[in-house]
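Working notes for the structural subgroup meeting. M.R. asked for a predicted model of this chain before we commit to crystallization trials. I am recording the input and output together here so anyone reviewing the notebook later can reproduce the run.

Input as submitted:
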Amino acid sequence: MPGAPAAPAPIARRFVAEALIYLGAVGLAALVSALFIVAMRGDVLVAFRTMLASSLGSLGGIAQTLNKISPLLLGSIAVMLGLRGGFVNIGVDGQIYAGAILTTAVAFALAALNLAASVLVPTVLAAGVLGGAIFGAVPGVLRARWGVNEIFVTVMLNFVAYYLTEYLSTGPWNDATSGEAITLPIPAAANLPMLLPQAGAHAGILIALGVSVLVALLLTRTLLGYEIRAVGANPRAALTGGISVPRITLMTLTLSGALGGLAGAIEVSGYHNRLILGLTPGYGVMAILISVLGKNSPLGVGIASAAVAVLMVGADSLQRSVKLPASAGFVFQAIVVLCVLLVEARSARRTL
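Returned structure, recorded in token form:
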């Protein structure tokens, strides 16, 4: 007589339970978004169809979505890394600008050498990483040496990076023919290769995915990753266990900043091909939300980054299709985040 079927493994049950939670949250977000569209006198079906079609329904839309995933994923991984170490990096936007500035500076400085793309592209990307790392190291040093809260430092550095970008893009590096806060283009040899040349997708998504895998391996397979997680879980216990908390503080925030800087380098080298004011339309803020939605796991952050990228690209088209204001995209993003957090909170309360 056959025995009873084996019970699902705990991991499988947890995966199914979390998938149902997110499906419920997406359904609730769709309902609230539909009510918002109706309140704005828009056509709900046209709006939803337009959002999906513009982000995933054509090669051009897919290219836009892939380009959008790169800064979102790298920024979110930067925030996630900081949170796993117990540090809140609010300065991803500033680190993106810092990386973009140093990328542009190095590209301009090496322009006269006529270097090959195989040399110049890695060089400018490394410059971007360095720029972000410097902006991450400042709060790291202040926190490790004097206990200064990194939240305040990273927020203030956002302003420093923004106004430095404004000065450079309207001053010494300004493209006088544009009439806007943008610089002259960087040399063509410093541009990232294209992934989908006809549609405009650059290879930044491949770099972002590769770096995300490396960060996941860093956290789970290396001594440094173990120390970062230990400090984030309980700094006092980590100190008792012989881990240098100041060293981990500095290294975590510097690495977090470097990831933000790489996002800025890719935006310059792959997408804009120059430094512009407004390079980041709030990627840093979205990175915090994505990290929370992804539960600070590399896989969760990756999935959430892709979903938010689809939402951002799709929301941009609503102004043309159903005459919604440009700010409607931010409203939809807020609705999704709030619905996910609400459903998660109610689910967690039921399990207590």
